[in-house]
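Pasting as-is:
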Amino acid sequence: MIRPLIFALALLAPLAAQAQTQTQTPAGLDKTLDALHAAAAKADGKTYFSLWTPGAVFIGTDAGERWTIEQFKAAFGPWFDKGEGFTYVPRERHLDMVPAPCGCVAVFDEILDSPKYGVTRDSGVAVRGEDGTWRLVQYHLTLPIPDALTDKLTAEIKAYLANKHP
C-alpha cells in the first residue's frame, strides 16, 4: 500500500515543481523594466539599449513596426542623442517565470500611462544571463482598445488601409 503511494508522489513531484516554477516571481526583472522605462524617459540610449539581448525584437503599435534591436537603435537612437525620450509609467505589472529547465526565461505584461498616448500595454519576454541580469528578448507595445469601441475603430482602420494601399 505504501509503495503505490510513493510511486504516485514520485510521478507528481515534477508537476508540483513545474507549478512552483511558474508562480515564482523572476527576481530582478522588476529592476530591469524600471531601468528601461527610466532610461527611455531620460533619453539615455546607452542604458536603454544595454537592457536588450543581441537580436532582440521590438514590436510597435503599428502593424508595420517590427524591428530588431539594432534596427530600433538606428531609428530611435538619434532621438535619444537629441535628448528626446518617451515616457511610460507602469501602473500595473505581471511577471511570470516560464517553466524552462534553466529557470532563466520570464514573460511580463504591464499597463502603462503615457503623456502622449494615454493608457498603453506592453508585454514581452526576458532572459536572465549567467551574471543574473535580466535582458529583453522581445517587447511589444500596444494601445488597448476598449471593447465598446472595437467595431468603430476596426472599421476606421480598414478604411484607412484600403485608401492607403489600393
